[in-house]
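Notebook entry, cofactor series.
This is the third protein in the set we're modelling with a bound small molecule. For this one the ligand is NAP. I'm keeping the input format identical across the series so the outputs can be compared line by line later. Sequence and SMILES below, as received.
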Amino acid sequence: MELSNKAIVVTGASSGMGKSIVELFVKEGACVVAVARRAERLTALAEALAGEAGKIIPFVGDVSKKEDCEAMIDRCVSAFGKLDVLVNNAGVMDNMAAVGNFSDEKYDYVMGVNVYGPLAAMRKAVSVFRAQGNGGNIITVSSLGAQHPVAGVIYCAAKAAINAAVRHTAFNYAKEGIRCNAIAPGAVATEIGSAMGTPDMDGYGRIQPLVKLSPATGKGEDIASVALFLASDASGFVNGQIIGADGGWSAM
Ligand SMILES: NC(=O)c1ccc[n+]([C@@H]2O[C@H](COP(=O)([O-])OP(=O)(O)OC[C@H]3O[C@@H](n4cnc5c(N)ncnc54)[C@H](OP(=O)(O)O)[C@@H]3O)[C@@H](O)[C@H]2O)c1
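Returned structure with ligand:
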């Protein structure tokens, strides 16, 4: 197994890619703290994985809150004795609005979950990694939207900010053995669209020429397998990379 005894925090574990990542990681022997806001989803996931090789601890938390980002990592250290990998997967969509029509309320919400949350979790993880003294590994789920306008302006700006933070972190801590990479999915069948609410039809219409170029829609498992590579020692020399997993969409 690729992740035997690795202690890993995965955010956004209650659905979509995060759920697939937790399922694969626990089957590969990892000890996982699975984070999301919906407790009942996490409990069901833990029950479904009870017979697998690794372990899972559900952790109810909101990644837009500093105290929850810190507590989820503390929980990993207290339960498993260490932190090896942080997977920043939790994320929310905006409402597809272009810049002429975005709301301040949506900005605060999307930036809080998609940018502040990963940065607050990375800050805590880096402090734990440095104290442990044997490197570390951070994986963040970004988006094709960081480079191509296939969602609203807030979401795309948030994911571009994350890509910058990933490269910044990779460079700054490389000599201490802390790796930091991102996955940039294209279209993946998850619950993110239904969680979005009512779309801004002006913005939604403007991006359709690009959205229609997507050659394929992936599954959560397609992203989990990339996360497994990045979490494993097989990717030990991969650092500061934004790895596309989009079925060819970014070749547009
Ligand atoms: N689906 C796509 O086409 C696509 C494409 C590119 C990138 N992505 C990115 O992929 C990642 C995973 O999204 P998904 O598509 O798998 O969506 P999803 O099915 O809606 O899952 C999102 C997860 O994030 C959690 N979450 C949302 N807000 C949270 C918060 N404040 N605190 C803690 N957890 C929170 C949700 O759990 P709770 O609601 O229970 O908290 C859920 O587990 C996101 O970063 C997204 O931006 C998705």
